[in-house]
Amino acid sequence: MPPRTSITGFDRAKFVAAGGAPRNDPWWRNEQWRYSGPFTRWNRFKGAFPGLGLATGAFIIYLAYDAVVARPDHSHAESGHH
């Protein structure tokens, strides 16, 4: 029994084959600037959060300062003063 054809004439194999990139795309060369130099994926992502590195470093320094230097004095709780 041969494979069933579609009522609409749609051929899935032809559709999948046509979905690839064209072999001789005249605009390919003109589109390459979008994916090179300052427009690479990494460079676009890097510029998305302009102050994140500095803010993270400042927050880590603050946490270290708070843990080491700015410890609360708990000696008054043991002396009987409430």
From TrEMBL:
Q: GO biological process annotations for this chain's record?
A: electron transport chain; mitochondrial respiratory chain complex I assembly
Main location, first listed in the record? mitochondrion
What GO CC annotations are associated with the protein? Answer: mitochondrial inner membrane
* TM regions (residue ranges): 47-65
Keyword Cell membrane among record annotations: no
* Membrane topology summary: Single-pass membrane protein
* Protein localization: Mitochondrion inner membrane
Q: Which UniProt keywords apply?
A: Electron transport, Membrane, Mitochondrion, Mitochondrion inner membrane, Respiratory chain, Transmembrane, Transmembrane helix, Transport
| Pfam families per the UniProt record, alphabetical | NDUF_B12 (PF08122)
Tell me its family.
Belongs to the complex I NDUFB3 subunit family.
Function comment: Accessory subunit of the mitochondrial membrane respiratory chain NADH dehydrogenase (Complex I), that is believed not to be involved in catalysis. Complex I functions in the transfer of electrons from NADH to the respiratory chain. The immediate electron acceptor for the enzyme is believed to be ubiquinone.
User: What protein is this chain from?
Assistant: NADH-ubiquinone oxidoreductase B12 subunit
Q: Which organism is it from?
A: Viridothelium virens (Speckled blister lichen)
